[in-house]
Specification:
Blueprint (H helix, E strand, L loop, with lengths): L2 H22 L5 H6 L11 E2 L2 E2 L3 H19 L16 E4 L2 E4 L5 E3 L2
This protein binds zinc ion.
Length: about 110
């Protein structure tokens, strides 16, 4: 499609603005709200990951939302214990034992 190259400049502009925002703030989830409802009349039958895609910016919002929700899951690691071996906060408890997700160091209380 020749339309793709026209879109490319705008997509580049949006992604550059987004990375500029990411450098300024810890919570960029408002970008998803701003972009997800944008409708492009030329895009009537577009789908991404089973969801209707009303526009390219809405597609960017879907991808961003996916990454942000994954980030929230990994941020749970911030509340884990400190590993005495590698100094990462990636120690999980498993019964009487602990295991580090980063280096594999494990210790059991008897
Ligand atoms: Zn470790």
């Amino acid at each position: 499609m020749s339309k793709d190259s026209t879109h490319q400049a705008y997509v580049t502009a949006i992604t550059r603005l987004m990375s500029a925002i990411f450098r300024k703030t810890d919570d960029a989830s408002f970008i998803v709200e701003q972009l997800e409802n944008i409708k492009d009349p030329a895009m009537t039958n577009s789908y991404w990951a089973g969801k209707n895609l009303p526009s390219i910016p809405a597609g960017i919002a879907l991808i961003l939302d996916y990454h942000l929700s994954r980030e929230k899951e990994t941020s749970k690691y911030n509340h884990m214990d400190l590993c005495e071996e590698c100094n990462n906060h990636t120690v999980i408890k498993d019964g009487n034992c602990t295991a580090c997700l980063s280096c594999g160091f494990s210790k059991c209380n008897k």
